[in-house]
User: Fold Iron-sulfur cluster assembly protein from Salinomyces thailandicus.
Amino acid sequence: SYHEKVLDHYNNPRNVGSMGKGSDDVGTGLVGAPACGDVMKIQIKVDPQNDTITDVKFKTFGCGSAIASSSYLTELVKGMTLEQAGRIRNTEIAKELCLPPVKLHCSMLAEDGIKSAISNYYKKN
Amino acid sequence: SYHEKVLDHYNNPRNVGSMGKGSDDVGTGLVGAPACGDVMKIQIKVDPQNDTITDVKFKTFGCGSAIASSSYLTELVKGMTLEQAGRIRNTEIAKELCLPPVKLHCSMLAEDGIKSAISNYYKKN
Ligand code: FES
Assistant:
């Protein structure tokens, strides 16, 4: 049975949604998990004065563990610098949520997503 | 992007829930997808007079395609005999929902689930 932290994020996901991609201060990451074919979109809004993440949104069609991993990640990165957020490892997320080994790829989707959003922001700026 | 039928079932899943397992006229299937680690529970209520499925419920922690596959399956099997329901193939489900090849294993979860529920019912009766 699933850990209560996973169920909490699954039933009550934080920061679900979308931002307009057009704006220069928004970075968009769109990634897929080869293991299961699921996809995830994460967007960050960045304060260019200090490279800090001021807002973050995600959307996924992935499983409960993917929803929980992304929801937890969005709470984690809000207020972080891009450098700090880029250093987050999926293993931290999996540990916090007590994900079983077979669901590690779901937390990988969250790590890949934030990295992809950061690199999209840098590309635009 | 996902087919509108998948989105419809995902946003509005039919027959989500649980029945008491104890009753003799209820068969419970609990199956997992090796490809992604997701799990699914399907329960059927059977009229023993004519071996017909009178009610069905499912629960899954799986992805959007798994939710849609199960939701569609529950609509399909209601009113079927056990024999008819046992002949449903995941390819029918995948075709109806226009699932991409990488998500075929999600529809397999639904086929495995109903078979497992049927065999559980037979075991009890
Ligand atoms: S099984 Fe695909 S993201 Fe979890």
Notes: Chain A has a mean pLDDT of 94. The beta strands of chain A are 26-32, 39-47, 52-60. The CA atoms of residues 30 and 41 of chain A lie 4 Å apart. The interface with chain B takes residues 2, 10, 35-38, 61-66, 100, 102-103, 105 of chain A (CB under 8 Å).
